[in-house]
Amino acid sequence: xxxxxxxxxxxxxxxxxxxxxxxxxxxxxxxxxxxxxxxxxxxxxxxxxxxxxxxxxxxxxxxxxxxxxxxxxxxxxxxxxxxxxxxxxxxxxxxxxxxxxxxxxxxxxxxxxxxxxxxxxxxxxxxxxxxxxxxxxxxxxxxxxxxxxxxxxxxxxxxxxxxxxxxxxxxxxxxxxxxxxxxxxxxxxxxxxxxxxxxxxxxxxxxxxxxxxxxxxxxxxxxxxxxxxxxxxxxxxxxxxxxxxxxxxxxxxxxxxxxxxxxxxxxxxxxxxxxxxxxxxxxxxxxxxxxxxxxxxxxxxxxxxxxxxxxxxxxxxxxxxxxxxxxxxxxxxxxxxxxxxxxxxxxxxxxxxxxxxxxxxxxxxxxxxxxxxxxxxxxxxxxxxxxxxxxxxxxxxxxxxxxxxxxxxxxxxxxxxxxxxxxxxxxxxxxxxxxxxxxxxxxxxxxxxxxxxxxxxxxxxxxxxxxxxxxxxxxxxxxxxxxxxxxxxxxxxxxxxxxxxxxxxxxxxxxxxxxxxxxxxxxxxxxxxxxxxxxxxxxxxxxxxxxxxxxxxxxxxxxxxxxxxxxxxxxxxxxxxxxxxxxxxxxxxxxxxxxxxxxxxxxxxxxxxxxxxxxxxxxxxxxxxxxxxxxxxxxx
Length: 636
Ligand code: AMP
Description:
By secondary structure, the protein is of the alpha/beta class. The protein is 31% helix and 24% strand. A hairpin with a 2-residue loop joins strand 28 (502-505) and strand 29 (508-511). The termini are far apart. The site of adenosine monophosphate has 20 residues, from strand 26 and strand 27.
């Protein structure tokens, strides 16, 4: 029966964890072998390959030099500036060594943090790999985040160095990174010693602040030809921190180890993505997200592949751009997000079909729910397996997926298939953590230890790690994904949305608390509730319901419209445009329980035109009438 081999593979990964992962660990180089495959003496903290010494940069770059010095490692394509440049493994090695030397000259050493706030330019990847080379811990912050969000992350990570650029470009418009960074550093308690700036010439006259700011090109010229030996790290030393949104306003620094991450990614390239040395991978994400870390930078390079590094949108100069890159560069593995496919679905299919896509073996999609019609549409159009797979910033690599490298299995539209090897994934009833049956909605959980590659802790806060992720159930210490899921009788899973207040806009995860704090930064706002509502294109969109300190300031439709714009601009400035609510409705009352807890679920249900559910605890029903009226009213 189909799937037998896959089931046996998964079973072994759980029943003989150490044997299984010891085998996978042979996919990467170790300078010194580990003492123990797994040290699980302090649950739920899992230490993989304890005592082993390795280095991510060595495995992603140096070890390929012998066989593929002249093979392209990274192909940069910018449809924003028209730049195109290819770097062989030999050239990548030279660039990374040079940046490593530049960082060392600025005093960065093992264990120091380096915050990377950069557009999608190759120098961003050089910076990440240079950190890995010298044992510094990078923390990449997505370029769409604005000053306040950036400042929060700088204060938490306390970087010695920030690496940035004058500007980025999005849809033809210049995004002034350096201005935003200066604003953020002004807000910070912990100021970085240096800012290393790559000048793209997009923002002439951008502010420079001596002696803190250092020019990349000038310093780089001094370090041309540098050779910096790799720093061998114990497998559990951190490689990076990546901040992600949760239910509080304070983002969590997901901390990743070194050896476990290298092994997990190398194994996933083989068993899940079917990407081998010499192949080409195109992941259409951004280095600011986990997908960018794992499958633009580290995964494909660990496997000796060529990675396409793309700056631009999916529809410029036309919606065929990605597919033309697949044709031109002979892409074998592609990874994108459902929203991008829904955007494409509105266009002429010829934008896809006129290209020769014969090199492409699979299209992988993740980051948000993939609806069945979109899954079917893109599969039919490509005539290739389109694999929906599910994972999180925390896990670093897929939790639910098909694994065509182990055994191809039939695709079920709308389902991210089966638990990946290494994950003892269960669907547990919220009430008592008991196992749910087939077709029963339950919480997606993982019985620890988490496999290699998953977060090792929350940066600087072990207690928060345990409290946040392992304390959903009173009597059972399991990892909660905070997603609802369901499994059918054939073992295929479907994700049904979050159990918490996190929302997902076009695959970008945002905490409603974070958006609320940004809205509240507007002086006229007394109180606000933000909820995510269903959106046909982006999956979800944030909607804000704000109570004003003085309702008279929004007495007329014109005043309301003007204030709504102002509030949106405040969110852009604080959090970034990615968190901007689709609408800001002004109300005089928010629905709360008698104990003062916001009834977000009810607000969300009403905004989506659904039944608001159990309202017995509601303090004042008039609040719900206002939500109903606000969302029913046509746009002012
Ligand atoms: P992030 O950490 O930003 O990658 O967001 C992770 C969250 O995105 C998950 O907890 C899910 O809510 C959602 N997600 C990711 N992949 C999928 C998928 N294939 N299907 C449904 N939801 C997904």
